[in-house]
Each structure stands twice: as structure tokens, then as C-alpha cells.
Design goal:
Layout: H1 3-10, H2 14-26, H3 29-36, H4 40-54, E1 59-62, E2 65-68, H5 70-94, E3 105-109, H6 117-128, E4 134-138, H7 142-150, E5 156-160, E6 169-176, E7 178-182, H8 187-191, H9 195-200, E8 202-206, H10 216-223, E9 229-234, H11 240-245, E10 250-254, H12 255-262, E11 268-271, E12 279-285, H13 293-310
Parallel strand pairs: 3-4, 3-5, 8-9, 8-10
Antiparallel strand pairs: 1-2, 5-12, 6-12, 7-10, 7-11
Helix pairs in contact: 2-3, 2-4, 2-5, 3-4, 6-13
């Protein structure tokens, strides 16, 4: 911006824009003063400033009335746009109308969740906020999603952690019992198993989110001084049940996830001989989005879908 333009711009405040728009639409300094709740001399002084800034009279007498000049007429719509945008600047933080909003919601989520969770959440958002795009992003390494939340690239993160990350706002969604998913042909279905047999079985587990990371199950086993035999790792968690159904692999995960696949695949749920604490799912968000009306609405939708699934 050239120096002269910047100097002019620095002299313009929102109040001056409101006076400009009111004077041009009322076509009268006295009526503008009434609408603005100002004394007439103060409106006249503001109009003088506006004329100096524009280098144009803006409003001229035409017979018994005042009429905007060509320059003044061209300013009416842009001035209205500026005032609307300024009002929206703060009202958007306080008010969110899902029926009219076009805001994009960005959700990072673990695919270890109940596989019906994200489809139901998207359906609920699209029903209530039909014009809001939704981005479902994979849950990546801890440092990465913390950065995404801090920078506003993600609105909410949904997942499970033995110890939830510090420094973020958090709400507990539900907890899930840890069970084992196997094919009906697995020997443990007939004979049962103990801890050593379970450790020696061939396990399938999700690929770690980043090198050196351990999943929730292996983290808890390490804390007990135990190690299982993981012979297959898969980055696509929702494909694992199909692999289990056609092999002797063992998946250890939450009951909600496993239950959904038992309805359509030849699979059996067995209790785990190792006593794991329940998997606890949370939604996490950053302080920057804590008070925003739109993100508060999104978190409420997440909570409601979690409650609905938990109570089925």
C-alpha cells in the first residue's frame, strides 16, 4: 500500500464508516444525527472529515434535498459491506447458526473407534449444518496433532490414550472393554487360553503412528513386563477384521469395534486372558477454539453421537 494511501487508511475508523453510510442513505445530516444518536454538529464535523479523505463533496444540495455525488453513491454498498463484516467479526464468535453457516469442520480421529461413530457423526453434522463441509483427517503423531490444533488446522481430535496429552482441553466420551477377536477356527475358541498361550499366539496390530511408537495394548503390556508376538501390522485398521476372519491371527481391541464386524464376518469375540484397563476415548481441543460458538457446537455433536452409541 503506498504511503499516502496508508496515511489515509489510518485516519478511517469504523465509526466514520457508519456516519458515511448513514448520511448517504438518509441524504440528510439532521436525520443521520437522529439515527446515530449524535448531535448534528458532530455529524457535520464527521462529514467534513469524510469529504477531505475522499476529495469529493459526497453529498450535495439538489433543490430542497441533498443527493449523493457519483463518488458518494459508489460508496454506499462497500460501506454497508464493511459494517456487516465488522458486526459478523464478533457475532460469529458468540453465535453459530448451523442452518446457514458454510464453515468447514476439521476432525482428526482414530480409526480404532466404533466404526459407526464417524459415519453417524458426519450424518448428524450434515443434517443440522447442511452447508458446512467436513474434513475427516487421520490421527497422526501426538506432536503433529497438537500443532494442528494450535494452528487451527484441526478443530477437534478424537482418540484413546493411556494418559491423555497435557496442555489441551479434554472431554471423556466413553470407555470400551478390551477383548480379542479371532476366527471361529482359532484353537482358543475350543480350548480357551491362558496368558502364556495368548502371548505366543500370532497377533495382528495397527502400524505405529510414527517410528518407535507403541500402540495402547503394547504400551500396557510393556508396563506389565510382558511382550506379545505381533506377526502382522496393518496401517488400515478397518481391514484387520477381514484378515483375522481368514487366518489364525488375534486382534486385541475394544469390544465396540469388534462387535460391529461380528455381524458380517465369521468372527468370535473371546475375553483377553491379560487384564487390560478399559480403553478410554476422549475428544481434545485447543484453548484457541474453546470459546468459539461453532467449535462448541461441534463438540456437542461429538458428545451426543458418543452417548447415542454407548446407550445402544
Amino acid at each position: 500500500m503506498p504511503m499516502r494511501d496508508q496515511t489515509l487508511f489510518d485516519k478511517i475508523d469504523l465509526h466514520l464508516i457508519r456516519v458515511l453510510h448513514t448520511v448517504l442513505t438518509e441524504r440528510s445530516v439532521s436525520r443521520a444525527a437522529l439515527r446515530l444518536g449524535m448531535h448534528q454538529p458532530a455529524v457535520s464535523a464527521a462529514l467534513r472529515r469524510l469529504r477531505e479523505l475522499a476529495g469529493d463533496p459526497l453529498l450535495v444540495r439538489s433543490g430542497a434535498q441533498m443527493q449523493p455525488t457519483e463518488v458518494g453513491q459508489r460508496m454506499v454498498l462497500p460501506a454497508a459491506d464493511i459494517l456487516r463484516a465488522a458486526e459478523g467479526l464478533f457475532s460469529d464468535a458468540r453465535h453459530f447458526d448451523p442452518r446457514t453457516s458454510t464453515r468447514t469442520f476439521r476432525i482428526a480421529a482414530s480409526d480404532y473407534l466404533d466404526p459407526q461413530f464417524l459415519p453417524r457423526l458426519v450424518a448428524a453434522i450434515k443434517l443440522e449444518a447442511p452447508n458446512c463441509p467436513v474434513d475427516i483427517l487421520p490421527l497422526s503423531a501426538e506432536a503433529h496433532y497438537e500443532g494442528q490444533l494450535a494452528q487451527g488446522e484441526v478443530d477437534v481430535v478424537i482418540g484413546n490414550w493411556p494418559q491423555p496429552p497435557q496442555g489441551l482441553h479434554m472431554a471423556r466420551l466413553f470407555e470400551d472393554e478390551v477383548v480379542c477377536l479371532v476366527s471361529p477356527k482359532h484353537p482358543a475358541v475350543r480350548r480357551g487360553w491362558d496368558v502364556p498361550q495368548w502371548l505366543e499366539a500370532e497377533h495382528i496390530a495397527p502400524t505405529p503412528a510414527y517410528p518407535g511408537a507403541r500402540g495402547v495394548i503394547d504400551e500396557q503390556l510393556a508396563g506389565m513386563g510382558l511382550q506379545r508376538q505381533v506377526t502382522v501390522r496393518c496401517a488400515h485398521f478397518s481391514l484387520i477384521p477381514d484378515m483375522v476372519a481368514s487366518s489364525l491371527l488375534v486382534l486385541t481391541s475394544g469390544r465396540l469395534f469388534c462387535d460391529r464386524f461380528c455381524a458380517r464376518l465369521p468372527l468370535v469375540i473371546l475375553p483377553s486372558p491379560v487384564e487390560f484397563p478399559p480403553l478410554v476415548y476422549y475428544q481434545l481441543w485447543h484453548a484457541r477454539s474453546h470459546a468459539g460458538a461453532a467449535t462448541r457446537w461441534l463438540r456437542e455433536m461429538v458428545r451426543n453421537v458418543a452417548l447415542m452409541l454407548r446407550n445402544q
